[in-house]
């Protein structure tokens, strides 16, 4: 195992081809003397980013800071890395906006809830990978979601990330003008993940569209928010339309994640577990221990993928 | 001081008029046997919400969990309450989605970054106030922002919360349909806060419109994101248009905060400090200690307001 990891952690990238470098799409960045990644509490003058992050090959992101710390500890064990998991420190400890953990070639970052929160993280993470001169990076969002017609605990690999109108697009406002971006994800990565899921026992997995909303209650047709102006029937009609459009789960970050990775040429996948079946209810009342187990499922899948890629398993 | 606080903390609200109760706008809630406030890790069956929260009169919210803990400790000292500030515990310790601290009649809650993140918190917070049968509650968002034509460190009391097109409205998608909501804030509260600002030395304060965007980089016309497709001139043109429309600062939560409070009949105000003047740059490179001091300024203003309302100062 050691020589394989050493390969991925080396700093000599001369054997890689230029196309696989992480690109930013901003001509202004080159002329900046310093780049402060404010919400990470990192910067190009204060930190040696190539030395700290140059060997990163897998970036895994998820909403909860605690969950992304757990994932870092889990992947440390899975990769058989030396040292104590308790010593894995939050690289962004100087701020409470996001948490970040590095474990060998894997970076684990929290992004909070919703499109704006993950978008700030993505801007700074993509710049980080660029400044660190990372190459051949795969990105995974490992999250939680509401299921549509699926048993709770099902892992959904996203085919298309769609908006509230079931369209595979993301609306970005730039200087007061609306720009539409494609939310295309990497087909190969999704298929490879689906193959991995068949190699793990007791991991119910589906591939389908993921609807990304900007609101957890009204926007997802929940009847239990502080505001609700629709009936149970209208709610179910909307969810059935979503199901007919291929939607199998609902969360709050996938469209901007897919859109930004697509623009920057980064291979990305979304893997979310369903915590409930929205045809059957709105409240998450499953026992805490069961929910914790569900939340580990996307981690198992992505960990399996990473170990295969690193040649640790066949 | 003690008798005044006891008045506000009493559980006998029989002398209040019915109109001042916190209203939810959801007919389904009454028929629910239990309401689990999932992202707070609280519920109507597991917690005695009227006993825990019935005396709340002031709810203060802000993005950062650390900052809202600091605010709780600060207001504890300001109100001269008994006990050690180190004993103020996070009520939502069972989850890392939000942090919540209660100090006498003041509730301090973090909401993360962006409209979706604060909207989940607002739904559950408004339901919490409703279940706890709170009355006469004032809400304050105390946050950070980018200034437009103002010196860094200026406190902006929001007149109108406007969107990226400078309109005082919030677009909410409900079951795939777009609904427009007013972002009207309480005029009286804003005026009372402005009066308070004149009573505090060295607190530069302005009243103006606050623009709420769904993105920190492209959406706010920053040239330093991973993506940027516009020139310095186009950026400045947009910011000047914003200034002409009365915008004095830019942040990422005010429209939905104003809209949801307005629908539920809650008196609300937005008080954000500017960390930089966007006419002069995009990066936040002010020393950490200076930023920390800036971030305390909205807290001083709201604390002064609360102390006046409680009769602790004239």
From TrEMBL, chains A, B:
Q: Which UniProt keywords apply?
A: Glycosyltransferase, Transferase
Work out whether the entry's keyword set contains Glycosyltransferase: yes
Give start and end of each Nucleoside phosphorylase domain. Answer: 57-306
What does the entry list under GO cellular component?
Answer: cytosol
What top-tier enzyme class does this entry carry? transferase
- Subunit description: Homodimer.
Could you identify this protein by its name? uridine phosphorylase
Organism (species): Aldrovandia affinis
Taxonomy, top ranks, is: Eukaryota, Metazoa, Chordata, Craniata, Vertebrata
